[in-house]
Amino acid sequence: MKGIGASPGIAIGKVLVKKDPEIKIEKKSIENVDAEIKRLEEARKVSKEQINKLYEHTLKNIGEKEAKIFEAHSMILDDPEFFGQVEQKIKSEEVNAEFALNEVTNNFVQIFESMDNEYMKERAADIKDVSSRVIKQLLGIETTDLSRLEEEVIIIAEDLTPSDTAQMDKEKVLGFVTEIGGKTAHSAIMARTLEIPAVVGVEGITTSVKNGDILIFDGEEGNVIVNPEEKVIEEYKNKKEEYEKFRERLAELKGAKSETKDGFEVELVANIGTPKDVDGVIRNDGEGVGLYRTEFLYMDRDDLPTEDEQFEAYKEVAERLEGKPVVIRTLDIGGDKDLPYLELPEEMNPFLGYRAIRLCLDRTDIFKTQLRALLRASAYGNIKIMFPMISSIEELRQAKAILEEVKEELRSENVKFNEEIEVGMMIEIPAAAIMSDVFAKEVDFFSIGTNDLLQYTTAVDRGNRQISYLYNQFHPALLRLVKQVIDNGHKAGIWVGMCGEVAGDPKLIPILIGMGLDEFSMSPISILKARWIINNLSREEMKEMAEKVINLPTAEEVKKFIEENIKIEF
Ligand SMILES: C=C(OP(=O)(O)O)C(=O)O
Ligand SMILES: [Mg+2]
Protein backbone atom coordinates (compact mmCIF):
# COMPACT_ATOMS: atom_id res chain seq x y z
CA MET A 1 0.00 0.00 0.00
CA LYS A 2 1.13 3.51 -0.59
CA GLY A 3 0.68 6.61 1.51
CA ILE A 4 2.44 9.87 2.18
CA GLY A 5 5.78 9.65 3.96
CA ALA A 6 5.28 11.85 7.00
CA SER A 7 8.22 11.17 9.27
CA PRO A 8 11.43 9.42 8.18
CA GLY A 9 12.65 6.04 9.36
CA ILE A 10 11.84 2.40 8.71
CA ALA A 11 9.57 0.44 11.00
CA ILE A 12 9.24 -3.33 11.08
CA GLY A 13 6.96 -4.89 13.63
CA LYS A 14 3.66 -6.16 14.87
CA VAL A 15 0.48 -4.28 14.17
CA LEU A 16 -1.79 -2.85 16.80
CA VAL A 17 -4.99 -1.50 15.31
CA LYS A 18 -6.36 1.34 17.35
CA LYS A 19 -10.03 0.83 16.81
CA ASP A 20 -12.71 1.74 19.24
CA PRO A 21 -14.88 -1.32 19.68
CA GLU A 22 -18.57 -1.07 19.03
CA ILE A 23 -20.48 -0.70 22.25
CA LYS A 24 -23.93 -2.27 22.57
CA ILE A 25 -25.93 -1.21 25.57
CA GLU A 26 -28.96 -3.26 26.49
CA LYS A 27 -31.61 -2.30 28.97
CA LYS A 28 -31.91 -4.89 31.74
CA SER A 29 -34.03 -4.85 34.84
CA ILE A 30 -32.14 -5.55 37.99
CA GLU A 31 -33.17 -6.80 41.41
CA ASN A 32 -30.39 -5.63 43.66
CA VAL A 33 -30.22 -1.87 43.29
CA ASP A 34 -27.45 -1.46 45.87
CA ALA A 35 -25.23 -3.98 44.12
CA GLU A 36 -25.77 -2.16 40.82
CA ILE A 37 -24.80 1.18 42.33
CA LYS A 38 -21.75 -0.47 43.82
CA ARG A 39 -20.84 -1.80 40.37
CA LEU A 40 -21.07 1.74 39.02
CA GLU A 41 -18.90 3.05 41.88
CA GLU A 42 -16.29 0.41 41.11
CA ALA A 43 -16.19 1.32 37.40
CA ARG A 44 -15.90 5.00 38.28
CA LYS A 45 -13.00 4.23 40.57
CA VAL A 46 -11.06 2.29 37.94
CA SER A 47 -11.77 4.99 35.34
CA LYS A 48 -10.51 7.59 37.76
CA GLU A 49 -7.26 5.68 38.22
CA GLN A 50 -6.83 5.43 34.44
CA ILE A 51 -7.41 9.13 33.97
CA ASN A 52 -5.01 10.05 36.77
CA LYS A 53 -2.33 7.93 35.13
CA LEU A 54 -2.97 9.60 31.79
CA TYR A 55 -2.72 12.97 33.48
CA GLU A 56 0.61 12.12 35.11
CA HIS A 57 2.00 10.62 31.91
CA THR A 58 1.01 13.63 29.84
CA LEU A 59 2.26 16.11 32.40
CA LYS A 60 5.62 14.38 32.56
CA ASN A 61 6.11 13.70 28.87
CA ILE A 62 4.21 16.43 27.08
CA GLY A 63 3.21 19.41 29.16
CA GLU A 64 0.87 21.02 31.59
CA LYS A 65 -1.51 22.39 29.00
CA GLU A 66 -1.99 19.02 27.29
CA ALA A 67 -2.54 17.38 30.67
CA LYS A 68 -5.37 19.76 31.48
CA ILE A 69 -7.79 17.81 29.30
CA PHE A 70 -7.53 14.88 31.72
CA GLU A 71 -8.05 17.18 34.67
CA ALA A 72 -11.36 18.15 33.08
CA HIS A 73 -12.23 14.47 32.62
CA SER A 74 -11.46 13.79 36.23
CA MET A 75 -13.79 16.59 37.28
CA ILE A 76 -16.65 15.10 35.30
CA LEU A 77 -16.08 11.76 37.04
CA ASP A 78 -16.40 13.52 40.38
CA ASP A 79 -19.49 15.47 39.40
CA PRO A 80 -22.24 14.73 41.98
CA GLU A 81 -25.01 16.21 39.86
CA PHE A 82 -24.24 14.03 36.88
CA PHE A 83 -23.67 10.75 38.71
CA GLY A 84 -26.47 11.58 41.14
CA GLN A 85 -28.86 11.47 38.21
CA VAL A 86 -27.46 8.12 37.10
CA GLU A 87 -27.94 6.59 40.55
CA GLN A 88 -31.41 8.06 40.75
CA LYS A 89 -32.29 6.36 37.49
CA ILE A 90 -30.93 3.00 38.62
CA LYS A 91 -33.02 3.26 41.79
CA SER A 92 -36.27 4.55 40.37
CA GLU A 93 -36.36 2.47 37.19
CA GLU A 94 -34.47 -0.57 38.52
CA VAL A 95 -32.27 -0.67 35.44
CA ASN A 96 -28.65 -1.67 34.86
CA ALA A 97 -25.87 0.89 35.42
CA GLU A 98 -24.61 1.11 31.84
CA PHE A 99 -28.11 1.76 30.53
CA ALA A 100 -28.78 4.47 33.13
CA LEU A 101 -25.42 6.11 32.54
CA ASN A 102 -25.93 6.10 28.80
CA GLU A 103 -29.39 7.69 29.10
CA VAL A 104 -28.18 10.46 31.41
CA THR A 105 -25.15 11.06 29.18
CA ASN A 106 -27.38 11.44 26.15
CA ASN A 107 -29.53 13.99 27.96
CA PHE A 108 -26.57 16.09 29.01
CA VAL A 109 -24.90 15.84 25.62
CA GLN A 110 -28.08 16.88 23.85
CA ILE A 111 -28.45 19.96 26.05
CA PHE A 112 -24.81 20.96 25.61
CA GLU A 113 -24.74 20.32 21.89
CA SER A 114 -27.88 22.32 21.23
CA MET A 115 -26.29 25.41 22.76
CA ASP A 116 -24.98 27.76 20.13
CA ASN A 117 -21.60 27.82 21.78
CA GLU A 118 -18.50 25.98 20.62
CA TYR A 119 -17.14 25.78 24.11
CA MET A 120 -20.19 23.95 25.45
CA LYS A 121 -20.13 21.65 22.44
CA GLU A 122 -16.58 20.69 23.31
CA ARG A 123 -17.70 19.93 26.86
CA ALA A 124 -20.29 17.56 25.39
CA ALA A 125 -17.41 15.70 23.76
CA ASP A 126 -15.65 15.45 27.13
CA ILE A 127 -18.76 14.04 28.80
CA LYS A 128 -19.13 11.46 26.02
CA ASP A 129 -15.50 10.52 26.38
CA VAL A 130 -15.70 10.01 30.16
CA SER A 131 -19.02 8.20 29.98
CA SER A 132 -17.78 5.78 27.34
CA ARG A 133 -14.73 5.05 29.49
CA VAL A 134 -16.97 4.09 32.44
CA ILE A 135 -19.37 2.12 30.22
CA LYS A 136 -16.49 0.13 28.74
CA GLN A 137 -15.37 -0.60 32.27
CA LEU A 138 -18.86 -1.82 33.19
CA LEU A 139 -19.02 -4.01 30.11
CA GLY A 140 -15.48 -5.30 30.52
CA ILE A 141 -14.39 -3.94 27.11
CA GLU A 142 -10.67 -3.36 26.74
CA THR A 143 -9.46 -0.38 24.74
CA THR A 144 -6.04 0.31 23.40
CA ASP A 145 -4.21 2.51 25.82
CA LEU A 146 -1.32 3.99 23.88
CA SER A 147 0.51 5.06 27.01
CA ARG A 148 0.72 1.56 28.44
CA LEU A 149 1.78 -0.86 25.75
CA GLU A 150 2.99 -4.35 26.59
CA GLU A 151 5.29 -4.78 23.61
CA GLU A 152 6.74 -2.87 20.68
CA VAL A 153 4.10 -2.18 18.06
CA ILE A 154 3.22 -0.21 14.95
CA ILE A 155 0.00 1.70 15.56
CA ILE A 156 -2.62 1.65 12.81
CA ALA A 157 -5.51 4.09 13.08
CA GLU A 158 -8.05 6.03 11.10
CA ASP A 159 -6.53 9.21 12.49
CA LEU A 160 -4.61 10.14 15.60
CA THR A 161 -5.70 13.11 17.64
CA PRO A 162 -3.28 15.36 19.49
CA SER A 163 -4.16 13.57 22.73
CA ASP A 164 -3.45 10.19 21.13
CA THR A 165 0.00 11.26 20.01
CA ALA A 166 0.54 13.00 23.35
CA GLN A 167 -0.06 9.77 25.27
CA MET A 168 2.11 7.55 23.10
CA ASP A 169 4.82 5.65 24.85
CA LYS A 170 7.75 6.49 22.60
CA GLU A 171 9.72 3.48 23.82
CA LYS A 172 7.10 1.04 22.56
CA VAL A 173 5.72 2.72 19.46
CA LEU A 174 7.85 1.75 16.45
CA GLY A 175 5.83 4.02 14.21
CA PHE A 176 2.33 4.74 13.02
CA VAL A 177 0.25 4.58 9.87
CA THR A 178 -3.04 6.45 9.49
CA GLU A 179 -5.76 6.65 6.87
CA ILE A 180 -6.26 10.39 7.19
CA GLY A 181 -3.87 13.27 6.80
CA GLY A 182 -1.20 14.86 4.68
CA LYS A 183 2.40 15.87 5.30
CA THR A 184 1.31 19.04 7.08
CA ALA A 185 -1.42 17.41 9.21
CA HIS A 186 -1.08 17.73 12.94
CA SER A 187 -0.34 14.02 13.43
CA ALA A 188 2.43 14.20 10.83
CA ILE A 189 4.08 17.22 12.44
CA MET A 190 3.80 15.51 15.82
CA ALA A 191 5.47 12.32 14.48
CA ARG A 192 8.44 14.30 13.24
CA THR A 193 8.71 16.15 16.53
CA LEU A 194 8.67 12.86 18.46
CA GLU A 195 11.08 11.42 15.86
CA ILE A 196 8.83 8.40 15.29
CA PRO A 197 8.55 7.12 11.68
CA ALA A 198 5.09 7.60 10.19
CA VAL A 199 3.08 7.29 7.00
CA VAL A 200 -0.26 9.05 6.63
CA GLY A 201 -3.05 9.00 4.05
CA VAL A 202 -3.12 5.21 3.54
CA GLU A 203 -6.68 4.54 2.50
CA GLY A 204 -8.11 1.26 3.76
CA ILE A 205 -5.25 0.37 6.10
CA THR A 206 -7.44 -0.07 9.19
CA THR A 207 -9.54 -2.71 7.47
CA SER A 208 -6.70 -4.50 5.67
CA VAL A 209 -4.69 -5.38 8.75
CA LYS A 210 -5.43 -6.97 12.10
CA ASN A 211 -3.62 -7.10 15.42
CA GLY A 212 -0.53 -9.25 15.28
CA ASP A 213 0.03 -8.91 11.51
CA ILE A 214 3.57 -8.02 10.55
CA LEU A 215 4.02 -4.69 8.87
CA ILE A 216 6.89 -2.84 7.27
CA PHE A 217 6.84 0.78 6.28
CA ASP A 218 9.18 3.43 5.05
CA GLY A 219 8.37 6.83 6.52
CA GLU A 220 10.20 8.66 3.79
CA GLU A 221 8.85 6.96 0.67
CA GLY A 222 5.41 6.20 2.12
CA ASN A 223 5.53 2.46 1.21
CA VAL A 224 3.58 0.10 3.47
CA ILE A 225 3.91 -3.69 3.17
CA VAL A 226 1.53 -6.02 5.01
CA ASN A 227 2.69 -9.50 6.04
CA PRO A 228 5.79 -9.46 3.86
CA GLU A 229 7.72 -12.55 2.83
CA GLU A 230 10.85 -13.41 4.77
CA LYS A 231 12.94 -12.14 1.85
CA VAL A 232 11.33 -8.70 2.00
CA ILE A 233 11.70 -8.53 5.78
CA GLU A 234 15.42 -9.21 5.34
CA GLU A 235 15.67 -6.54 2.68
CA TYR A 236 14.04 -3.95 4.92
CA LYS A 237 16.06 -4.99 7.94
CA ASN A 238 19.12 -4.14 5.90
CA LYS A 239 17.56 -0.88 4.81
CA LYS A 240 16.75 -0.05 8.41
CA GLU A 241 20.30 -0.80 9.46
CA GLU A 242 21.59 1.40 6.64
CA TYR A 243 19.24 4.16 7.70
CA GLU A 244 20.46 3.92 11.28
CA LYS A 245 24.07 4.00 10.12
CA PHE A 246 23.18 6.99 7.99
CA ARG A 247 21.73 8.78 11.05
CA GLU A 248 24.92 8.00 12.94
CA ARG A 249 26.96 9.52 10.17
CA LEU A 250 24.69 12.52 10.17
CA ALA A 251 25.26 12.88 13.90
CA GLU A 252 28.90 13.54 13.08
CA LEU A 253 27.78 16.72 11.37
CA LYS A 254 26.79 18.26 14.67
CA GLY A 255 28.83 21.40 15.09
CA ALA A 256 29.76 21.55 11.39
CA LYS A 257 29.02 24.57 9.24
CA SER A 258 25.97 24.66 7.00
CA GLU A 259 27.80 25.71 3.88
CA THR A 260 28.25 24.56 0.31
CA LYS A 261 31.52 23.24 -1.12
CA ASP A 262 32.20 26.72 -2.49
CA GLY A 263 31.62 28.47 0.80
CA PHE A 264 28.02 29.74 0.60
CA GLU A 265 26.80 29.63 4.18
CA VAL A 266 23.17 29.41 5.24
CA GLU A 267 21.32 29.07 8.52
CA LEU A 268 19.64 25.76 9.36
CA VAL A 269 16.97 26.35 11.97
CA ALA A 270 13.94 24.55 13.35
CA ASN A 271 10.16 24.72 13.40
CA ILE A 272 8.72 24.22 16.86
CA GLY A 273 5.27 24.27 18.46
CA THR A 274 6.03 24.19 22.18
CA PRO A 275 8.97 24.95 24.48
CA LYS A 276 9.40 21.18 24.89
CA ASP A 277 10.32 20.87 21.22
CA VAL A 278 13.56 22.74 21.97
CA ASP A 279 14.98 19.36 23.13
CA GLY A 280 14.82 18.17 19.52
CA VAL A 281 16.37 21.41 18.23
CA ILE A 282 19.36 21.00 20.52
CA ARG A 283 19.66 17.25 19.87
CA ASN A 284 19.77 17.89 16.11
CA ASP A 285 22.10 20.89 16.33
CA GLY A 286 19.61 23.45 15.03
CA GLU A 287 21.15 26.90 14.66
CA GLY A 288 18.06 28.52 16.10
CA VAL A 289 14.31 28.54 15.63
CA GLY A 290 12.93 29.81 12.32
CA LEU A 291 9.29 29.33 13.23
CA TYR A 292 7.71 29.02 16.64
CA ARG A 293 4.02 28.31 15.96
CA THR A 294 2.44 29.96 18.99
CA GLU A 295 -1.07 28.63 18.23
CA PHE A 296 -0.43 25.58 20.40
CA LEU A 297 -0.25 27.84 23.45
CA TYR A 298 -3.84 28.83 22.74
CA MET A 299 -5.24 25.44 21.74
CA ASP A 300 -6.66 22.56 23.83
CA ARG A 301 -7.70 24.79 26.69
CA ASP A 302 -10.76 26.71 27.82
CA ASP A 303 -9.57 30.29 27.73
CA LEU A 304 -6.87 32.57 26.38
CA PRO A 305 -3.37 32.21 27.81
CA THR A 306 -2.41 35.13 30.04
CA GLU A 307 0.44 37.51 29.25
CA ASP A 308 2.58 35.91 31.96
CA GLU A 309 1.96 32.38 30.74
CA GLN A 310 3.02 33.41 27.26
CA PHE A 311 5.99 35.37 28.55
CA GLU A 312 7.25 32.29 30.43
CA ALA A 313 6.97 30.10 27.31
CA TYR A 314 8.74 32.57 25.00
CA LYS A 315 11.41 33.33 27.58
CA GLU A 316 12.11 29.63 28.12
CA VAL A 317 12.68 29.08 24.40
CA ALA A 318 14.82 32.22 24.04
CA GLU A 319 16.96 31.32 27.04
CA ARG A 320 17.49 27.71 26.08
CA LEU A 321 18.69 28.81 22.66
CA GLU A 322 21.35 30.98 24.25
CA GLY A 323 21.40 33.92 21.87
CA LYS A 324 20.66 31.97 18.72
CA PRO A 325 17.82 33.48 16.67
CA VAL A 326 14.25 32.57 17.66
CA VAL A 327 11.58 33.69 15.21
CA ILE A 328 8.24 33.74 17.00
CA ARG A 329 5.13 33.98 14.87
CA THR A 330 2.12 35.80 16.28
CA LEU A 331 -1.15 33.92 16.59
CA ASP A 332 -2.12 32.10 13.37
CA ILE A 333 -5.51 30.75 14.40
CA GLY A 334 -8.41 30.01 12.07
CA GLY A 335 -8.51 27.85 8.95
CA ASP A 336 -7.91 24.32 10.19
CA LYS A 337 -6.85 25.55 13.64
CA ASP A 338 -9.94 26.37 15.67
CA LEU A 339 -10.20 27.98 19.10
CA PRO A 340 -13.63 26.94 20.40
CA TYR A 341 -13.68 29.45 23.25
CA LEU A 342 -13.40 32.39 20.84
CA GLU A 343 -16.71 31.35 19.29
CA LEU A 344 -15.59 32.21 15.79
CA PRO A 345 -18.40 32.25 13.23
CA GLU A 346 -18.77 29.28 10.88
CA GLU A 347 -17.47 30.19 7.47
CA MET A 348 -17.92 28.89 3.96
CA ASN A 349 -14.19 29.18 3.25
CA PRO A 350 -12.30 29.08 6.54
CA PHE A 351 -8.91 29.18 4.80
CA LEU A 352 -9.92 32.44 3.16
CA GLY A 353 -11.68 33.77 6.22
CA TYR A 354 -11.34 35.51 9.52
CA ARG A 355 -8.02 34.21 10.73
CA ALA A 356 -4.43 34.91 11.78
CA ILE A 357 -3.43 38.58 11.42
CA ARG A 358 -6.98 39.48 10.35
CA LEU A 359 -8.32 38.26 13.65
CA CYS A 360 -5.47 39.89 15.59
CA LEU A 361 -6.03 43.29 13.99
CA ASP A 362 -9.69 43.04 14.96
CA ARG A 363 -9.18 41.57 18.44
CA THR A 364 -6.37 43.93 19.44
CA ASP A 365 -6.83 42.87 23.08
CA ILE A 366 -5.57 39.37 22.17
CA PHE A 367 -2.87 40.74 19.87
CA LYS A 368 -1.51 43.28 22.34
CA THR A 369 -1.31 40.73 25.13
CA GLN A 370 0.81 38.51 22.91
CA LEU A 371 3.02 41.37 21.73
CA ARG A 372 3.62 42.48 25.32
CA ALA A 373 4.67 38.94 26.25
CA LEU A 374 6.93 38.71 23.18
CA LEU A 375 8.61 42.04 23.82
CA ARG A 376 9.16 41.29 27.51
CA ALA A 377 10.71 37.92 26.58
CA SER A 378 12.97 39.62 24.03
CA ALA A 379 15.12 40.83 26.92
CA TYR A 380 16.20 37.21 27.50
CA GLY A 381 17.46 36.12 24.10
CA ASN A 382 17.47 36.78 20.38
CA ILE A 383 13.73 36.93 19.66
CA LYS A 384 12.38 38.16 16.32
CA ILE A 385 8.69 38.81 15.73
CA MET A 386 6.91 37.52 12.63
CA PHE A 387 3.38 38.26 11.39
CA PRO A 388 1.44 35.50 9.57
CA MET A 389 -0.96 35.73 6.61
CA ILE A 390 -0.16 39.29 5.60
CA SER A 391 -1.94 40.08 2.32
CA SER A 392 -1.65 43.87 2.09
CA ILE A 393 0.69 46.67 3.09
CA GLU A 394 -2.06 48.22 5.20
CA GLU A 395 -2.23 45.11 7.37
CA LEU A 396 1.52 45.14 7.86
CA ARG A 397 1.53 48.84 8.76
CA GLN A 398 -1.36 48.35 11.18
CA ALA A 399 0.37 45.42 12.87
CA LYS A 400 3.60 47.41 13.17
CA ALA A 401 1.74 50.42 14.54
CA ILE A 402 0.18 48.27 17.27
CA LEU A 403 3.60 46.86 18.06
CA GLU A 404 4.89 50.44 18.44
CA GLU A 405 2.01 51.27 20.79
CA VAL A 406 2.86 48.27 22.94
CA LYS A 407 6.55 49.25 22.97
CA GLU A 408 5.57 52.72 24.13
CA GLU A 409 3.42 51.23 26.88
CA LEU A 410 6.31 49.10 28.11
CA ARG A 411 8.71 52.06 28.01
CA SER A 412 6.35 54.11 30.14
CA GLU A 413 6.16 51.22 32.61
CA ASN A 414 9.96 50.91 32.62
CA VAL A 415 9.77 47.32 31.45
CA LYS A 416 12.87 46.24 29.56
CA PHE A 417 12.80 44.72 26.08
CA ASN A 418 15.05 44.59 23.03
CA GLU A 419 14.69 48.00 21.36
CA GLU A 420 16.37 46.61 18.24
CA ILE A 421 14.01 43.66 17.85
CA GLU A 422 13.70 42.51 14.24
CA VAL A 423 10.21 42.39 12.74
CA GLY A 424 9.43 40.21 9.75
CA MET A 425 6.52 38.67 7.92
CA MET A 426 5.47 35.39 6.42
CA ILE A 427 5.16 35.32 2.66
CA GLU A 428 2.41 32.76 2.27
CA ILE A 429 -0.23 34.58 0.25
CA PRO A 430 0.38 35.14 -3.47
CA ALA A 431 -0.45 38.86 -3.15
CA ALA A 432 2.40 39.24 -0.68
CA ALA A 433 4.81 37.32 -2.92
CA ILE A 434 3.88 39.44 -5.93
CA MET A 435 4.27 42.66 -3.91
CA SER A 436 7.39 41.48 -2.11
CA ASP A 437 9.49 44.33 -3.55
CA VAL A 438 7.22 46.77 -1.74
CA PHE A 439 6.98 44.75 1.49
CA ALA A 440 10.76 44.31 1.61
CA LYS A 441 11.18 48.02 2.31
CA GLU A 442 9.07 47.79 5.47
CA VAL A 443 10.31 44.65 7.24
CA ASP A 444 13.59 43.21 8.52
CA PHE A 445 13.09 39.76 7.00
CA PHE A 446 10.80 37.46 5.06
CA SER A 447 9.98 33.84 5.79
CA ILE A 448 8.29 32.00 2.96
CA GLY A 449 5.46 29.74 4.07
CA THR A 450 5.25 27.29 1.21
CA ASN A 451 2.50 25.20 2.83
CA ASP A 452 0.02 27.99 2.38
CA LEU A 453 1.68 29.70 -0.57
CA LEU A 454 1.25 26.50 -2.59
CA GLN A 455 -2.34 26.08 -1.39
CA TYR A 456 -3.33 29.62 -2.33
CA THR A 457 -1.33 29.81 -5.56
CA THR A 458 -2.82 26.62 -6.97
CA ALA A 459 -6.22 26.86 -5.23
CA VAL A 460 -5.67 23.40 -3.76
CA ASP A 461 -6.73 22.76 -0.15
CA ARG A 462 -3.59 21.50 1.60
CA GLY A 463 -5.55 18.96 3.64
CA ASN A 464 -7.90 17.50 1.04
CA ARG A 465 -6.90 13.96 0.18
CA GLN A 466 -9.02 13.72 -2.93
CA ILE A 467 -7.03 16.45 -4.64
CA SER A 468 -3.72 15.87 -2.90
CA TYR A 469 -2.21 14.85 -6.25
CA LEU A 470 -2.54 18.53 -7.22
CA TYR A 471 -0.75 19.73 -4.10
CA ASN A 472 2.70 19.42 -5.58
CA GLN A 473 5.68 21.28 -4.19
CA PHE A 474 7.49 20.95 -7.52
CA HIS A 475 4.90 23.17 -9.20
CA PRO A 476 6.90 25.71 -11.25
CA ALA A 477 4.46 28.47 -10.24
CA LEU A 478 5.50 28.04 -6.62
CA LEU A 479 9.19 27.97 -7.51
CA ARG A 480 8.90 31.13 -9.60
CA LEU A 481 7.22 32.96 -6.75
CA VAL A 482 9.89 31.76 -4.32
CA LYS A 483 12.64 33.04 -6.61
CA GLN A 484 10.89 36.38 -6.99
CA VAL A 485 10.57 36.78 -3.20
CA ILE A 486 14.22 35.93 -2.58
CA ASP A 487 15.39 38.34 -5.28
CA ASN A 488 13.16 41.15 -4.04
CA GLY A 489 14.28 40.64 -0.46
CA HIS A 490 17.94 40.73 -1.43
CA LYS A 491 17.48 43.83 -3.58
CA ALA A 492 16.16 45.63 -0.51
CA GLY A 493 18.99 44.26 1.62
CA ILE A 494 16.98 41.97 3.91
CA TRP A 495 17.45 38.26 4.62
CA VAL A 496 14.97 35.72 3.30
CA GLY A 497 14.11 32.44 5.00
CA MET A 498 11.61 29.67 4.45
CA CYS A 499 9.60 27.80 7.08
CA GLY A 500 7.17 25.78 4.94
CA GLU A 501 7.78 22.07 4.34
CA VAL A 502 9.69 22.78 1.11
CA ALA A 503 12.63 24.11 3.16
CA GLY A 504 13.36 20.57 4.38
CA ASP A 505 12.68 18.78 1.10
CA PRO A 506 15.89 16.98 0.09
CA LYS A 507 15.12 17.36 -3.60
CA LEU A 508 14.34 21.08 -3.43
CA ILE A 509 17.07 22.18 -1.02
CA PRO A 510 19.62 22.33 -3.89
CA ILE A 511 17.29 24.56 -5.92
CA LEU A 512 16.78 26.88 -2.93
CA ILE A 513 20.56 27.06 -2.49
CA GLY A 514 20.77 28.04 -6.15
CA MET A 515 18.21 30.78 -5.56
CA GLY A 516 20.25 32.09 -2.63
CA LEU A 517 17.83 31.41 0.25
CA ASP A 518 19.48 32.56 3.49
CA GLU A 519 17.65 30.56 6.13
CA PHE A 520 16.02 27.12 6.05
CA SER A 521 13.58 26.25 8.82
CA MET A 522 12.32 22.68 9.19
CA SER A 523 11.40 19.87 11.57
CA PRO A 524 14.41 19.32 13.84
CA ILE A 525 14.81 15.75 12.55
CA SER A 526 15.47 17.03 9.01
CA ILE A 527 18.27 19.44 9.94
CA LEU A 528 21.34 17.20 9.81
CA LYS A 529 20.32 15.63 6.53
CA ALA A 530 19.83 19.10 5.08
CA ARG A 531 23.34 20.02 6.28
CA TRP A 532 24.74 16.94 4.57
CA ILE A 533 23.05 17.85 1.32
CA ILE A 534 24.22 21.47 1.47
CA ASN A 535 27.79 20.44 2.32
CA ASN A 536 27.83 18.41 -0.89
CA LEU A 537 26.56 21.11 -3.25
CA SER A 538 28.21 23.80 -5.30
CA ARG A 539 26.34 27.11 -5.12
CA GLU A 540 27.48 28.08 -8.61
CA GLU A 541 26.19 24.86 -10.16
CA MET A 542 22.90 25.13 -8.31
CA LYS A 543 22.37 28.67 -9.59
CA GLU A 544 22.25 27.25 -13.10
CA MET A 545 19.96 24.39 -12.03
CA ALA A 546 17.52 26.83 -10.42
CA GLU A 547 17.45 28.92 -13.58
CA LYS A 548 16.62 25.86 -15.67
CA VAL A 549 14.03 24.46 -13.29
CA ILE A 550 11.84 27.54 -13.16
CA ASN A 551 11.58 27.49 -16.92
CA LEU A 552 10.16 23.97 -17.07
CA PRO A 553 6.46 23.69 -17.79
CA THR A 554 5.26 21.02 -15.34
CA ALA A 555 5.84 19.84 -11.78
CA GLU A 556 6.58 16.37 -13.12
CA GLU A 557 9.35 17.70 -15.33
CA VAL A 558 10.81 19.74 -12.50
CA LYS A 559 10.98 16.65 -10.30
CA LYS A 560 12.46 14.54 -13.08
CA PHE A 561 15.04 17.19 -13.93
CA ILE A 562 16.20 17.38 -10.34
CA GLU A 563 16.37 13.60 -9.97
CA GLU A 564 18.41 13.24 -13.13
CA ASN A 565 20.72 16.18 -12.72
CA ILE A 566 21.40 16.60 -9.03
CA LYS A 567 22.91 13.53 -7.48
CA ILE A 568 23.90 13.50 -3.87
CA GLU A 569 25.65 10.42 -2.55
CA PHE A 570 24.83 9.59 1.02
C1 LIG B 1 4.84 27.48 7.66
C2 LIG B 1 3.60 27.71 7.31
O1 LIG B 1 2.65 27.92 8.24
P1 LIG B 1 1.57 26.83 8.74
O2 LIG B 1 1.99 25.49 8.21
O3 LIG B 1 1.58 26.92 10.21
O4 LIG B 1 0.31 27.35 8.09
C3 LIG B 1 3.20 27.71 5.90
O5 LIG B 1 2.07 28.08 5.57
O6 LIG B 1 4.04 27.32 5.08
MG1 LIG C 1 0.73 29.12 6.95
TrEMBL record:
Its EC number is 2.7.3.9. InterPro entries: PEP-util_enz_mobile_dom, PEP-utilizing_PTS_enzyme, PEP_util_AS, PEP_util_C, Phosphohistidine_dom_sf, PTS_EI, PTS_EI-like, PTS_EIN. It is found in: Cytoplasm. Its cofactor is Mg(2+). The keyword Magnesium applies. GO terms for cellular component: cytoplasm. Residues 2-123 form the Phosphotransferase system enzyme I N-terminal domain. The active site is at H186 (tele-phosphohistidine intermediate), C499 (proton donor). Keywords: Coiled coil, Cytoplasm, Kinase, Magnesium, Metal-binding, Phosphotransferase system, Pyruvate, Sugar transport, Transferase, Transport. Residues 248-537 form the PEP-utilising enzyme C-terminal domain. It catalyses: L-histidyl-[protein] + phosphoenolpyruvate = N(pros)-phospho-L-histidyl-[protein] + pyruvate. Residues 150-222 form the PEP-utilising enzyme mobile domain. PROSITE patterns: PEP_ENZYMES_PHOS_SITE. It comes from the Bacteria. Gene3D superfamilies: Phosphoenolpyruvate-binding domains, Phosphohistidine domain, PtsI, HPr-binding domain. General (non sugar-specific) component of the phosphoenolpyruvate-dependent sugar phosphotransferase system (sugar PTS). This major carbohydrate active-transport system catalyzes the phosphorylation of incoming sugar substrates concomitantly with their translocation across the cell membrane. Enzyme I transfers the phosphoryl group from phosphoenolpyruvate (PEP) to the phosphoryl carrier protein (HPr). This is Phosphoenolpyruvate-protein phosphotransferase. It comes from Caldisalinibacter kiritimatiensis.
